[in-house]
UniProtKB/TrEMBL annotation:
It holds the Pfam family Pterin_4a. This is 4a-hydroxytetrahydrobiopterin dehydratase. The keyword Lyase applies. GO terms for molecular function: 4-alpha-hydroxytetrahydrobiopterin dehydratase activity. It catalyses: (4aS,6R)-4a-hydroxy-L-erythro-5,6,7,8-tetrahydrobiopterin = (6R)-L-erythro-6,7-dihydrobiopterin + H2O. It comes from Winogradskyella vincentii. Keywords: Lyase. Belongs to the pterin-4-alpha-carbinolamine dehydratase family. PANTHER family: PTERIN-4-ALPHA-CARBINOLAMINE DEHYDRATASE (PTHR12599). The keyword Electron transport does not apply. Its EC number is 4.2.1.96.
Length: 95
């Protein structure tokens, strides 16, 4: 179920790396180099499969940009926050 804007902003207080706009939550992570970045992306990919929830993302060298929304629901849902939490746990170690 799509969350309303105020619920999203409230939840985001626990996710300082993330911001809400254009119906999705977004974060940008910078690593030391491409290898570390791609290693984090591989770990995230396994987590996405486990959660059956997938990011819109892009990578340029050591920078990873991630947008999360639930396409089926047409906005941000709890699934996006669950994936964001898993991404944070991975990136904390790698970044
Ligand atoms: C069939 C399967 O459950 C869906 O296609 C899943 C897969 N991953 C997904 N990921 C995202 N971000 N949104 C979805 O609506 C979505 N749907």
């Amino acid at each position: 179920m799509k969350l309303d804007d105020s619920t999203i902003e409230k939840k985001l207080l626990r996710f300082p790396d993330w911001e809400f706009h254009k119906n999705a939550i977004h974060a940008e992570f910078e690593f030391d180099n491409f290898k570390d970045c791609f290693s984090a992306m591989s770990r995230i990919a396994f987590e996405c499969e486990a959660q059956n929830h997938h990011p819109d993302w892009s990578n340029v060298y050591n920078v990873l940009k991630i947008s999360l929304s639930t396409h089926d629901a047409g906005g941000v849902t709890q699934k996006d926050f669950n994936l964001a939490a898993a991404i944070e746990a991975i990136v904390e170690v790698e970044e």
